[in-house]
Amino acid sequence: MSNETRILIIGLIASTLRMATPLIFASLGGVFSEKSGVVNIALEGIMTAGAFFAVLGSHLTGNAWMGILFGIAGGMIFAAIHAFLSIHLQAEQVVSGVGINVFAAAFVGFMLYKVFGNPSQSEAVASIPYPTEFFAKIPVIGAVLKDLNWFVWLAFIMVIVSSYIFNKTPLGLRIKAVGEHPKAADTLGISVYGIRYFSVLMSGVLGGLGGATLSIGILNSFRENMVSGRGFIALAAMIFGNWKPKNAMIACLLFGFAEALQLAAQGFAFKLPQEFYAAFPYLLTMLVLVGVVGKTQAPAADGVPYKKGQR
């Protein structure tokens, strides 16, 4: 193997992991929300809010770690709006999610202009430091690890934590019970509204982290349309993974590879139009959804509002 090929492969692996990370966070958020019975099309808007508020927090405090907290808070605010509309007011959940996506994009554009004087891009802010030199010294895998960031590590930890919650804890059983049979869960004394609010807010936490990964993890600024459909790709990964954290992670790695391939395309010996590589992640998303339609099973009460006392 030539040195150029080796460098290309290492770069492709590292880029795949980085590109998959925001998708993993958002898809896990989707799993929490939809396992409890609330469809969350709003992940795109939640990620947008998380990306902007992370930059805003880093800008205001000069501390990128505070930026992460701001990003989580921003994601939770928009998730809370979706939860209130979907659970308390029993609005159509898809319509609520689409409305939040549109509102988030408009709100962030307005705030970009008010804070940074530019409606399309923020100034550079502090990003999360990463010990590249330390990881580079690790034999064999150091070449890949040195090109990652802390968000990548956290994403895989959250996959393990989420799987444990759903499969090994009373909380996970309650979330699944509410998403499958809310009336039966209510009869057993489980707060359907409380579990659904918690789950949707968790989607805000994780979606906010996904957005922060883009703005202060991969980059160090916010740019207009930087989320660019990743919330919808995360939803596709969730469906492809049959609403299971580990399976959703695998799907995210597949989509991350497609995006990394787009970035690495210029180093290939054969040439295809750049537009093909740019469209490849979205084309793959559609092909995957076509392939899994009818083969996956959503929670029985997913998207069905619950009214206490209703028969």
TrEMBL record:
<feature type="transmembrane region" description="Helical">
    <location>
        <begin position="6"/>
        <end position="26"/>
    </location>
</feature>
<feature type="transmembrane region" description="Helical">
    <location>
        <begin position="64"/>
        <end position="87"/>
    </location>
</feature>
<keyword id="KW-1003">Cell membrane</keyword>
<feature type="transmembrane region" description="Helical">
    <location>
        <begin position="38"/>
        <end position="58"/>
    </location>
</feature>
<feature type="transmembrane region" description="Helical">
    <location>
        <begin position="94"/>
        <end position="113"/>
    </location>
</feature>
<feature type="transmembrane region" description="Helical">
    <location>
        <begin position="276"/>
        <end position="294"/>
    </location>
</feature>
<dbReference type="InterPro" id="IPR001851">
    <property type="entry name" value="ABC_transp_permease"/>
</dbReference>
<keyword id="KW-0472">Membrane</keyword>
<feature type="transmembrane region" description="Helical">
    <location>
        <begin position="250"/>
        <end position="270"/>
    </location>
</feature>
<feature type="transmembrane region" description="Helical">
    <location>
        <begin position="197"/>
        <end position="219"/>
    </location>
</feature>
<keyword id="KW-0812">Transmembrane</keyword>
<protein>
    <submittedName>
        <fullName>Nucleoside ABC transporter membrane protein</fullName>
    </submittedName>
</protein>
<dbReference type="Pfam" id="PF02653">
    <property type="entry name" value="BPD_transp_2"/>
</dbReference>
<feature type="transmembrane region" description="Helical">
    <location>
        <begin position="148"/>
        <end position="166"/>
    </location>
</feature>
<dbReference type="GO" id="GO:0005886">
    <property type="term" value="C:plasma membrane"/>
</dbReference>
<dbReference type="GO" id="GO:0022857">
    <property type="term" value="F:transmembrane transporter activity"/>
</dbReference>
<keyword id="KW-1133">Transmembrane helix</keyword>
